[in-house]
Design goal:
single chain, 2 domains, 4 helices, 9 strands, about 30% strand
Length: about 180
Amino acid sequence: MAITVSFTVNQTVGSPQAINIVDTSIGSDVTAVSRRIYITNSAGAYLTTGPTVSTAIAYTEWPIADGNNLTINNILATDMAVNITLTYVNISGGSVASDTSLEGFTMYNETFYYSLTQAQALQNQPPPMIIQDSNYYMNKIILRENIDDGNQAILYGNDITTAQNAYDRATYQVLNQNLFF
């Protein structure tokens, strides 16, 4: 039975810079000797560890003998929408089978969002804190909307550009938290 490529991806809480990939492919092909992971951002540039962005084709080699779980460390520096391609390759590097998935990684902004929730829980006593400022809750809602807008652009529109723009708006709020929170 030929290979039908499929995979899942996620981030781990506390390690937003890393991507975890689980190969859930079925079938086999005797000519397939390795796998390659290609990750491209919304501008079409390739991501590699560092995190490094390159216009040259770049990938992470993933030998079949290494099992079905792979963590690529130090690849994300911020929330991103990316296309991830898992390709099975033969001895000469030619593609045997491949699949691509548009994914949104939001752990940086989600972690900050949760820190706002934690701060609210701690600020139930006087003196008045920033959370009592009417703009605080509006800005928190805008942050949530930007994260959700990016996720919906991926889920419903398969739209990497709109997703990245939404994630960038959320990241702007986080990087300029003194203005918003």
